[in-house]
Amino acid sequence: MPPFSTCSRAQVKLDLSAHIPRLRAFALSFCGSADQADDLVQETLVRAWSHRDSFIEGNLSAWLFTILRNVYFSQYRKGKREIPDIDGIHASTLAVAPGQTSHMDMLDFRIALARLPASQREALLLVGAAGHSYIEVAEICGCAVGTIKSRVNRARQALAEMLRIDPLPDLIETTDATGRKPHRETEHCADPPAQP
Fold it and tell me: Which domain of life is it from (predicted)?
């Protein structure tokens, strides 16, 4: 994407608003509340708009997700929440009993997702839900690509364990009898490679 300085105001607004659904989904994973997620996305877009001149040609999505992440860690994580509810008393008054089992499955998933360490949850959602590449997520999170791959893999393993489902074989690192990971080329071969 070209720098915003070469785009019209209308085009910048259009480009920013196209990212709202994915930003909202990611914000919801941080906040757990739709209202707080909307506030986080709004603050992200306000900051992106006010700093649009600092956007350099490149990946707008990664830039926006980085802003959202930074806003969250600087404001929301420091306890600047609207309703302090340490004991969960207020939250329990808002709960509505689900009417369908699929809702319960989703609730189980959200609970399991919330139990993941923040770094694993963040990596998994950026790769799996937001559709970013490992390289983009590494850039957003400010760490190595291998670290992101590891976090995503561990998150998938932990979710599978918490939800009591069989993980897909390619999501979990396998080892041979010696405890070493097999080479990709020989992983699916019928006959193991000859040992010298």
Answer: Bacteria
**Whether 72 contacts 24, CB under 8 Å:** no
CATH architecture group of domain 99-171: Orthogonal Bundle (1.10)
- DSSP 3-state of 117: coil
Parse the chain into domains and list their residue ranges: 1-80, 99-171
Backbone angles phi, psi at 189, to 5 degrees: -75, 145
Nearest Cα residue to 23 out of 47, 42, 3: 42
pTM for the model: 0.48
From its phi and psi, is residue 142 left (phi > 0), alpha (psi between -120 and 50) or beta? Answer: left
Q: How far apart are CA 64 and CA 120, in angstroms?
A: 20
> Are the CB atoms for 132 and 22 separated by under 8 Å?
no
Among candidate residues 4, 143, 6, the one with its CA nearest the CA of residue 60:
4
| Model pLDDT for residues 173-196, shown as the tens digit of each residue | 444 444 444 444 333 333 444 444
Q: Side chain identity at 126, as an amino acid letter?
A: L
In this structure, are residues 167 and 156 in contact, taking their beta carbons and an 8 Å threshold?
A: yes
- Measured CA to CA, the distance from residue 38 to residue 24 in angstroms comes to 6
Contact present, 141 and 122 (Cβ < 8 Å): yes
Residues 29-73 pLDDT 10s: 877 788 888 998 999 999 988 887 888 777 888 889 899 988 888
* Residue length of the chain: 196
